[in-house]
Protein BONZAI 3 (Triticum urartu), 590 residues
Amino acid sequence: MGGCFSGDVRGGMEAVGGGARGATAAAGQGQGQGGPNEAVDHFFQGQALRLYTPLELSFSASKLRNMDALSKSDPMLVVYTKMDGRLEEIGRTEVILNSLEPLWITKAMINYQFEIVQPLVFRIYDVDTKYHNTPLKMLNLAQQDFLGEAFCNLSEIVTKFNHSLTLNLRNGSGHALQGTVTVHAEETASSRMAVDMQFHCLNLDNKDTFSKSDPFLRVSRLSESAVAIPICKTEVIKNNLNPVWRPITLTSQQYSSKDDPLLVECFDFDASGNHELIGALQTTIAQLENLYNSKAGANFYSHKGQKKLKGQLFLDKFQEKVQHTFLDYISSGFELNFMVAVDFTASNGDPRVPQSLHYIDPSGRPNSYQQAILGVSEVLQFYDNDRRFPAWGFGAKIPRGSVSHCFNLNASTNDCEVVGVEGIMSAYSSTLYSVSLAGPTLFGPVISKAAEIASHSVQYGNNKYFVLLIITDGVITDQQETKDSIVRASDLPLSILIVGVGNADFTQMRILDADFGKRLESSTGRVATRDIVQFVPMREVQAGGQVTVVQSLLEELPGQFLEYMRTRDIKPRPPQHASAPPAYPPPPQL
């Protein structure tokens, strides 16, 4: 078992993967106070297993060109994703005969990932009559008449109120053609299902000599080949043979179906990572529900079921629920509002020399600051309706003024917003030559400014969530003030993304990100209500090569968004359907 939970907070003693809140409650406080846990799933992130949302794409087209002389076109749609400049086909519809208004039945499946841009290409062909008996996958598309193509990003579809997007068709050169294609994305119902459970045990075997065991549960899904795939674990209850753990929440993505086998193991925690098995049992979600209804206990067994043990597992809670997803909120009008703050301290180097982190290469190659701005804003821009982004700088002496630790990049005294990604890039470039790089590096003022905007927004509604990107080359000198501002902001609809550029030692910056330690604490002793910071040193991610800086930054954001909404019981807006007369008259009354 050594190192199995090395990615957990507090040395492996916190709950993981079951909607775990994390280190707000100290381990060993008896029955585990507080409600269901909501922390980020460190185990999955440590294993690079990112959860995604499976979507089903449906297609229709209208006013297609007619390519046949004696009949109408026989259209088929092919959908592609674009990966590293290459098109990868993900599906083909059936051929619909003699139709310029096709409504295809065949769907295409795609996994939605928030943290990356997912370009899609849709191409429609008129399939020649002589190929109608050819299997779809065997059709040579070059031998069919091309009716047009359309492009979009998957995020453009899912942010629409009804998850539907209509696109104009174009030819291969980008010129407009007659006709449109409509794409509709839908989550499978199962992706919203979840179950809340609370476990306790009685009469566990004692594995310690001078005290009692420190038990925790691990729940794993058993694959068809009987391989145990861990999906969650509880927190550790110290010195207790009759532990009661905090509630956990398992989603259908984790347990697959109610009848799929699960393995529940109880371990005695050891700080070395060599946890000793107390007992295990095999079960299913359906059997756990029966266990709860019967109020009975299930006996643990020794290794590989060799011996039935006296220790028993009980359920104090079993409740199935529909858990609203990130896309439920986004498609009902909730927004992610992007904000950016750029470090203009002198340690970046003179922007006029190539060694500077702020050097703008005449060849057009973006520097580290530009890479971070472009990467994050290209993902988030589709979730912001007006695409007007607050943009600040800090750590520079501004014209006719002193050193400022929060100034508007657009040089305006009243309005901090710029328009679009291009507006951010333009304001950044202009600021480089209008300010004098200075110092020190302070985060507190820009975080407080972002929190002020988020707080003001809450007074007028709850459908906006703010994302502040801070890009810096050095360690902050106002660490306690920064902690205080983050703790205050943890109650607001705000997440903070920090990118470290250059070769500085960013060890102290990791304290701000609560992934591997306890929640931040303010100077007054107040503990942050949730983890809202994600810190990524650019050089380490680039050296790893498996994921991009943007993916590393954004992978926690949907979870932070959902944690804020769920803990405040904020629901997605119900879909708004236009009133229309019924398509058919009602049946006659008997």
